[in-house]
Amino acid sequence: MGWTSARLFARVTAAPAVVLAAWLLVAFPLLVAGVLTPLTGALLGIPAVAAGVVLIVRSVPGPSDGDGARLPWWPLVLTAGIAVAFVAVQLGYHSEILVVRRDPASYAQYTAWIAQHGRLPIPQQRGLIAGDDPALVYGSLAYYEVGDVIWPQFLAGAPLVYTVGHWLGGLTGMVLVPPVVGGLGVLTFGGLAARLIGPRWAPAAASVLAVCQTQQWISRSTYSEPVAQVLLLGALVLAFDALTRRTALGGGWSRWHTLAAASGLVFGLGLMVRITALRDLLPLVAFAGLLLVARRGQALPLLGGLAVGVGYGAVAGYGLSRPYLEHLSASLVPLLWISAAVVACVAAAVALLWRRGLPRGDRPSWLPTAAAWAVIAVMAVIALRPLLYTDTGHGDEATAAYIGQVQELEGLPVHPDRTYYEMSLHWVGWYVGLSTVLLASFGAALIVRRIMSRRAPQWVLPAMVLSWTVVTTLLRPAITPDHPWASRRLIVLVLPAFILFAVWFAAWLTRRLNSEPEVSRPEVRRTTAAVAAAASIAAMLVPTAITAAGVMTYRSDVGSVEATRKLCRAIPDDASVLVVDGLYGGYLQLVRGMCGVPAAGLSSSEPGRDVARVVAEIEERGRTPVLAASQPRHILPHVPPGTRISHPFDVNTEQDPSTLMEPPAGAWVFDGDVWVAVVR
What global pTM score does this model have? Predict the structure, then answer.
């Protein structure tokens, strides 16, 4: 068939997920074995990526009909151009968040450690400071002290991707990778829209996602969401491609089986990036059951790939992040039981329906219409929740205290226990516009009706995954509700789902108007359809762009990379660092991991005596004591007169804001200070 524009479009938009998955497949075992280095990564990673491109991306089918073969080049060029422009803008606005206050710095420190050392856990090196002195702590924010080692809080998927940037360009290279991955997410989403709606609508869908404030915001920092988004959207892309041909259960292996296995694997690897992906995978298990009952040959490869990916995720969680999962046990254990119940129920349903076959969704005849109205009813209930009740109960005193502070800053009634979860659909409206919410609701209802009427089989899996994730996430976002922070929970699948359903509805409406039988003049039909299409896209883009302006005016934590380098230069190579005040919470892993010296924090009611004792013990070990604090006055009582106290980490810049009742529209101030004294 040749390299038509449609074939190239399909393969280019499937490639990002394949490349990331291939890298994770080889990089994670290297990390587990403690031999992750630039050399081993290159020796195994480059062939793995090449093999993924050859075996999987080349298996992606081209157009299946003449219309696809005649596709012009502009949809591909425009979609790719939107992704490239997105990357360029985010590179210009990329953050430098290295001080641990929230997740991006935790991921950054995780990345820096494994990029330089290639192994976990992180040794405390107590013997180079003061041994088991009871006044010392070695853990810090997002880094758990367990025995004589340190375990990072989160999963390894995103740090393994960002590690490549660190190898290529140090800290600067590391913080430049998220914008690139975010752009790959835009490109992958365009590919999904092209498959489900039509290639000519892909640029519209990609542009709405690219303009969305949350997509821009998460792509500027070392969050896990950009990587998770590429994997899960890419898995849907590969699943669509795998199911474009019908294969019999038990038949010979074909490229459709390869694509199905790859789709399941990429889905499962999402669990290596975010533990919440486990919830998003449940509809895939049910869909695999449907494939088995329908005797589709892709069912077993899909399940096999999923099992391998989930296995990776389980090792990443319970092998390298067990303290984090134990911290989440109150919500994770019920989810594990629910997952087990879903697997058992699907297995029972497959056994029950094996001989009977799948029930007809269009019988009785009123059922498809009833299902469509059920979609509208669910959305209406979610939208009306703020009028019905106020959700409370964070389950965490620190979160409640922080929410109370933000409420005071915004002049709101102080109600620290309020979670704001009932406003989750309003959050979606902030970031993509209420018009998109309405169009998406109508689109989802019509898609469900078409699925039940057996007219849209290609939508079954995307609708199952996206609808399930939308409803469960909106009912319980399970995140600290200040913004833009809380919008992280929406960006992987929820906001893309709303955009996808809304653009599909715009396309459906355009086609209906263009084929209206009551209008005899073709030029009138075409003009009406074009106006409807333009108006629909504008209704999505304009409010999305207005909200996005809130993050287009600042870079978060800019200057932290150079300040970190200055801090590390101020600390001697043979130093052992003691942080004498609460500064250690955000900086301890930065000193240990990025400066490469042993570090501990002081947790003491009598700092004078304890500091003197620890300093003496450090000197006894033949090392140079270095005291660090957020202010000079915390160091002065512990050093001889005339000791120089320097200020190498001095960052006065902007950081992300926190809002509760409106979308963020500007930055807050960030002051980062580390004073050090070398005690000789």
Answer: 0.95
